[in-house]
Amino acid sequence: MTSLDDLPIRDNLRGLSPYGAPQKHVRVALNVNENTHGVPADVADDIVASIAAAISQIHRYPDREFTELRESLAGYLNEESAGAGLSAEQLWAANGSNEVIQQILQAFGGPGRSILGFPPTYSMHSIIASGTDTAYITGQRDAEYRISPETVVREIARTEPDIVFLCAPNNPTGTPVGLDTIEAAYDATRGLVFVDEAYAEFMPTGTPSAVTLLPGRERLLVSRTMSKAFAFAGARVGYLAADPAVIDALRLVRLPYHLSALTQAAAVAALRHSAEMLARVDEIKEQRDRIIAELPALGYSGWESHANFVLFGGLKDPHATWQRLLDEDVLIRDLGIPGTLRVTAGTEEETTAFLDALARADGAE
Ligand code: PMP
Predict the structure, then answer these.
(1) 39-48 pLDDT tens trace
(2) Which terminus of the chain is less hemmed in, N or C, by CB atoms within 10 Å?
(3) What fold is seen in the domain 41-272?
């Protein structure tokens, strides 16, 4: 049988593994930080009507500039981050924020260039770096997975990257990154600063987003996704807010018509219901805080999380506990961080199922 090693694959892809969170059919799936509440019926009806209307023109290529979607996204962010004053020219979208990140590295990374990331962090950042032949440099975090302004400045001076990658809040730890750290990073580099805000909507109410830092900072890029707060993981819509010149650079590498007419119609319709979707986010935040509050009684402790998941520690054998939960049809995530597992906050029932199964698993140190 032919193996990858027999193929003339690029040297920097040799020996790598693809992104591989298990996709199993289980009763309670809390492993990939999805929004398990789903799309409410009235929102779904509106989306279906919009898709039906788009079908009448499906024989034509879609709007290559997805203008209506960019206007909707700008409106959404401006409502959230008052004062950002974003125009549609500052918005970009793609099939998931993973694709946005890939386009950023196609345009600004590549052979001879580097990004500085701060593991443990979102694994796709380094995988997309490999895919675009961009060097990935590992920065050192502070204790408890934090990154202070001093630390980010020190790591930038030490490594001189072309792009600084900050994940705020960070996956898989849930920990926040302060705006002071993002500002310090920006001032310490002549390169780009990319902030992955996939989970921004789950931050405590009133916490400012890096979007508020965009005015006057043409090298700052902030990505978001509809996969989490908008329960739209299956639709594949991620987006970026940045200077119009950055968006122009992405046009050089995107494939023409990369966002289908159906995707555009569905996303514009979903954004019309942002208030209803954000009310669901509040319910998820309650379940996240409940997990953190209830873990100590079971012998574990969770890190403070500004996202829709919790990393918790105090496990004797994380993989054994992960398996015990799976035996009860509860799937969470083992990221290989010693002594820890990560769980997504689900509905109240799912969260109860997780906590009950964890109590029975008896895996505390
Ligand atoms: N960034 C982070 C930090 C994530 O956790 C994820 C999804 N797990 C993504 C980006 C990608 O999301 P999507 O491609 O679905 O927008």
Answers:
(1) 999 999 999 9
(2) N
(3) Aspartate Aminotransferase; domain 2 (3.40.640)
